[in-house]
UniProtKB/TrEMBL annotation:
Cellular component GO terms, alphabetical: Golgi membrane
Gene responsible for this protein: HS3ST5
EC number(s) per entry: 2.8.2.-
Places the protein is found: Golgi apparatus membrane
Residues that bind 3'-phosphoadenylyl sulfate: K99, G100, G101, T102, R103, R182, S190, Y292, K308, G309, R310, I311, H312
Pfam families to which the protein is assigned, alphabetical: Sulfotransfer_1
Organism: Pteropus vampyrus (Large flying fox)
Annotated protein name in UniProt: Sulfotransferase
Domain Sulfotransferase: 90-334
Keyword Lipoprotein attributed: no
Protein origin, superkingdom: Eukaryota
Keyword list, A-Z: Disulfide bond, Glycoprotein, Golgi apparatus, Membrane, Signal-anchor, Transferase, Transmembrane, Transmembrane helix
Active site: K99 (for sulfotransferase activity)
Principal location: Golgi
GO molecular function: [heparan sulfate]-glucosamine 3-sulfotransferase activity
Length: 345
């Protein structure tokens, strides 16, 4: 009898212990998510050193819940009104460059509780048909957010499209502009690789990179090839500087964002006058994928799409050398204009 009572008692202790552990795990997960999502208490200080606006970095309870419902179109107008949610024009735009890491940058910045991202590329300023629909059409393409949050969108075609700087200037002459760049030759090959993959999916043939990047008649770099032109960063930046001072631009090192993302993100937080909130906890290296993934809290992780990190085709070393020599003077001028020297050959 005593043995049965002891066994029953042990079983009861195990059950209670399991419940306690489960409750504890739930609370840990809840706290991890509430630290980002729930209105709890104001933070000390303001946006950056200049204090643009006091921002109680509160939970923003619906950033992963109710805001998700808005994106799906399931929330009511009454919910919008009750929770002071709005669709704001962006206060910052990632304007380029293509294959520089714009998607990775946008997703990583979205780790910050004060940032809300537009999920899709809007292509408002670089597309004449979209631009003709007007600024209200553009605003309604933005995600719902709280008034104190910063909405950010990215469309890498903006950087190289001639009409875009003036159009963005007319919308907001004080907007913050983010440019993420990679070593120009690597970026050009990555650009080619993406196009090549698209051709192969359609069972179409495509020229080798060497044939596109080098003019067969002159044996010089083919500046008519779009992948090459896009990598001449200083040429495009000079067009933007006709409308915006260099202080409104921030250059992100796309190569470093791959290998060491946190310092780059901290520089962007400072540029956007955001209180520092992204930490090493939010970034973990996925050995299988070969790059960093995102951790929002103890239960919500996210990796970029499998199309990221494509394997580049082998390129003739002499062509790589020729391209790097061609880009070198443009790179030096880019460093001089932006005030940031990057570790490019």
């Amino acid at each position: 009898m005593l043995f049965k009572q002891q066994a029953w008692l042990r079983q009861k202790i195990l059950v209670l212990g399991s419940l306690a552990v489960g409750s504890l795990l739930y609370l840990v997960a809840r706290v991890g998510s509430l630290d980002r999502l729930q209105p709890i208490c104001p933070i000390e200080g303001r946006f950056g050193a200049h204090g643009q606006a006091e921002f109680p970095l509160r939970a923003l309870q619906f950033k992963r819940g109710l805001l998700h419902e808005f994106r799906k179109g399931n929330a009511s107008k009454e919910q919008v009104r009750l929770h002071d949610l709005v669709q704001q024009l962006p206060k910052a735009i990632i304007i380029g460059v293509r294959k520089g890491g714009t998607r990775a940058l946008l997703e990583m910045l979205n780790l910050h509780p004060a940032v809300v991202k537009a999920s899709q590329e809007i292509h408002f300023f670089d597309n004449d048909e979209n631009y003709a629909k007007g600024i209200e059409w553009y605003r309604k393409k933005m995600p719902f957010s709280y008034p104190q949050q910063i909405t950010i969108e990215k469309s890498p075609a903006y950087f190289i499209t001639e009409e875009v700087p003036e159009r963005i200037y007319k919308m907001n002459s004080s907007i913050k502009l983010l440019i993420i760049v990679r070593e120009p030759t690597t970026r050009a090959i990555s650009d080619y690789t993406q196009v090549l993959e698209g051709k192969e999916r359609k069972n179409k043939t495509y020229y080798k990179f060497e044939k596109l990047a080098i003019d067969p008649n002159t044996c010089e770099v083919n500046t008519k090839y779009k992948a090459v032109r896009t990598s001449i960063y200083t040429k495009h930046l000079e067009r933007w500087l006709k409308y915006f001072p260099i202080e409104q631009f921030h250059v992100v090192d796309g190569d470093r964002l791959i290998t060491e993302p946190l310092p780059e993100l901290q520089l962007v937080e400072k540029f956007l006058n955001l209180p520092p909130r992204i930490s090493q906890y939010n970034l973990y290296f996925n050995a299988t994928r070969g790059f960093y993934c995102l951790r929002f809290n103890i239960i919500f992780n996210k990796c970029l799409a499998g199309s990221k990190g494509r394997i580049h085709p082998e390129v003739d070393p002499s062509v790589i050398t020729k391209l790097r020599k061609f880009f070198h003077p443009f790179n030096q001028k880019f460093y001089q204009i932006t005030g940031r020297t990057l570790n490019w050959p």
